[in-house]
Amino acid sequence: MTTDRSPGRRPGESTAREDLLAAARAEFGAAGFDKATLRSIAARAGVDPAMIKHYFGSKQGLFAAAVELPFDPGAIVADVLRGDRDQLGNRLAATFLTMWDSAGGAAATSTVRTAVGSPEAGAALHDFLINRVMRHGLTQLMGWTPEARWRASLVASQLVGLLVTRYIVPFAPLADAEVDEVVRGVGPTLQRYLTGDLGAVPRTGGG
Asked: How far is CA 14 from CA 46, 53, 66, in A?
């Protein structure tokens, strides 16, 4: 005697984790990281808020999983701000490269594919990196002014470009260079974006 079964998830198998990831992308994308709450995410997913801690440990852990980040980008800020101001660019480049080198090209591809393929995930990633990570760092240097937001967007453009050309669409010799060699090349540019003279802030730079 045979029984017809439709393909897919087995009866009774929980979809809570996948439901939470989808809900998190939607909530983070719509409200931003700070305003999205664990309760609202859980309600959208139709699960108990305790499931977030069970699967992801914290709100930041849930965010990282939702956009497929292989590490906590907030850790970059603490490392970069520790030390001389005139070496910020070098420390940022070194920390960023070390984290992604450890994660590998597959992780970079997954993160970018998720951000590009899902408007919600892309908006969530932008909000988190600019309005939380970069804002936290630059506020300690100059406050969160239109100039700081302009600087943040320039830094982000450099880091995203580096992410793509080193790990996703490898450009030799950049993709094969040692971390310290890449730091010597891009560190001064990041330093200028962070603290150097950039001229007038564009009218759209206030964000």
From this structure: 12, 16, 18
